[in-house]
C-alpha cells in the first residue's frame, strides 16, 4: 500500500473500533455515523470519505466478524488434525462458544437481533458466513466417509435439506452425504441456541459451571449422531 492508502485503511479501522465500542455500550441497534464522528472529533461529512453510509460500515463490521470467527474454527480444526472427526468436532464446537463469549458484540452482530434499517447484502456476506459452517460440515463428511456417522435423517417426504448455495468443499464434491448436511444444521441450531441463551444470561438459573454443561451437551449431541 502507498502511504495514503495505509492512512485510509488505518482510519477505517479506527472507525470500526469506535463503532464496536458504541455497540458494546449502547447495543448494536444504536450504531450511528454522526455519533462515531463526534467520538473521533471529526466532522460527520469527513466520515463519508471512508464509508458511503451506515449500511456500508455495518457490512464491513459483519464481514470482519465472520472472518475472525471462521479463522478461529479453522485454526483449532487444523491444530487437531491428528484426532478423530468426533474429537475434532468437540474441540471445534468448544471453540465456537469460547469465541462467541470473547467477542459478544461481533457474535450478536452476525447472529443476534437485526439492526433496524439495515438489510444484509447476502451476496457479499454469504461466502464469509459459510466458512464457519464449512469447517463443521467437513468434519461430518469425514466421519461419514469413515462410516462413523449415524443415519438419522428424518424420513419425511415433506422434509428436504440441500447444500446451501455458495458452500464449496472441493475435497468432497460433488457427492456430499445428505446426512452430513442434516447433522451439521441440527448441530448448528443446538449449539447456537445454547450459546445465545448463555450470552443473554438465560442459563444462570441452572447454576453450576455453564462451561461444563455446554461440554456435556456437545458430547450428548455427538453421541446421538456419531459412532
Structure overview:
This protein has helices spanning 3-26, 33-40, 44-47, 54-79, 85-102, 104-111, 122-145, 178-199, 210-225. The longest helix has 26 residues, at 54-79. The mean pLDDT is 88. It starts with a helix and ends with a helix. The protein has two domains: 1-51, Arc Repressor Mutant, subunit A (Orthogonal Bundle), CATH 1.10.10; 65-225, Tetracycline Repressor, domain 2 (Orthogonal Bundle). It is elongated, with a radius of gyration of 20 Å. The protein is an all-alpha fold and 227 residues long. The chain is 66% helix and 0% strand. The protein is built from nine helices and no strands.
Largest sheet: none
Q: In CATH, what is the class of the largest domain?
A: Mainly Alpha
What is the beta-strand fraction? under 5%
Discrete helix count: 9
Let me know the average pLDDT: 88
Task: Indicate the topology.
Layout: H1 3-26, H2 33-40, H3 44-47, H4 54-79, H5 85-102, H6 104-111, H7 122-145, H8 178-199, H9 210-225
Helix pairs in contact: 1-2, 4-5, 4-6, 4-7, 5-6, 5-7, 5-8, 5-9, 7-8, 8-9
Describe this protein with a few key phrases.
227 residues, Tetracycline Repressor, domain 2, single chain, 9 helices, Arc Repressor Mutant, subunit A, mainly alpha
Amino acid at each position: 500500500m502507498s502511504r495514503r492508502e495505509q492512512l485510509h485503511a488505518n482510519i477505517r479501522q479506527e472507525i470500526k473500533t469506535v463503532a464496536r465500542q458504541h455497540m458494546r455500550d449502547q447495543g448494536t441497534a444504536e450504531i450511528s455515523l454522526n455519533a462515531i464522528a463526534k467520538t473521533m472529533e471529526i466532522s460527520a461529512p469527513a466520515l463519508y470519505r471512508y464509508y458511503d453510509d451506515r449500511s456500508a460500515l455495518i457490512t464491513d463490521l459483519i464481514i470482519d466478524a465472520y472472518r475472525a470467527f471462521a479463522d478461529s474454527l479453522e485454526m483449532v480444526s487444523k491444530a487437531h488434525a491428528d484426532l478423530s472427526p468426533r474429537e475434532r468436532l468437540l474441540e471445534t464446537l468448544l471453540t465456537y462458544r469460547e469465541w462467541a463469549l470473547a467477542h459478544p458484540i461481533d457474535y450478536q452482530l452476525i447472529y443476534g437481533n437485526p439492526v433496524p434499517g439495515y438489510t444484509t447484502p447476502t451476496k457479499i456476506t454469504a461466502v464469509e458466513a459459510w466458512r464457519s459452517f464449512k469447517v463443521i460440515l467437513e468434519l461430518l463428511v469425514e466421519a461419514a466417509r469413515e462410516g462413523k456417522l449415524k443415519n438419522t435423517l428424518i424420513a419425511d417426504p415433506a422434509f428436504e435439506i440441500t447444500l446451501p448455495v455458495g458452500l464449496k468443499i472441493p475435497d468432497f464434491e460433488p457427492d456430499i452425504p445428505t446426512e452430513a448436511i442434516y447433522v451439521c444444521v441440527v448441530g448448528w441450531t443446538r449449539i447456537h441456541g445454547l450459546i445465545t441463551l448463555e450470552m443473554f444470561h438465560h442459563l444462570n438459573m441452572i447454576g453450576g459451571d455453564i462451561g461444563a454443561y455446554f461440554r456435556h451437551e456437545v458430547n450428548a449431541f455427538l453421541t446421538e449422531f456419531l459412532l
